[in-house]
User: What shape does this take?
Amino acid sequence: MKLLKVGLTFAVALLVVNEQTAQAATATTSFAVSATVTSACIVVATPLLFLVYDPSAADNDKTSTITVTCTAGTSYNIGLDKGANGASTTTRQMIDTVSTNLINYKLSSVVNQATNWGDQIGTDTVAATAALLPAVHTVYGRIPTGQYVTAGSYNDTINVTVTY
Assistant: This one.
């Protein structure tokens, strides 16, 4: 009977020794994480609605906004083309599709209409550098008084180009 007890004691002692020496091993490493951020811009414009124009009243002034969201630190220029009916950015015109009469209007980056907003970078565009938030740029529109054209609904389409 003593032999059996010794055998059991040896087996239990062997289990204890194996549990102490069978610990988990670890190995570690690391990896790099990187990205290249490119310059990018998104532009959104609201309609410029002159509503009712009375040629015998004062100039009809209204505004529109252009919201530009670019990668922070990106320099950009906003250009406005001549529209579908104008001969140039300084002679923009809306058309009445029924009578085909034209009415003149102006677009400016300043409230007093002192400067024309056109599409020639370095000459008549609006230049800015993007911050962390979207930038809102106001377009000041004016239909000068005294244009006695046929009554109707006059329209034009201006293309906005952001160059960055």
Summary: The first helix runs from residue 2 to 21.
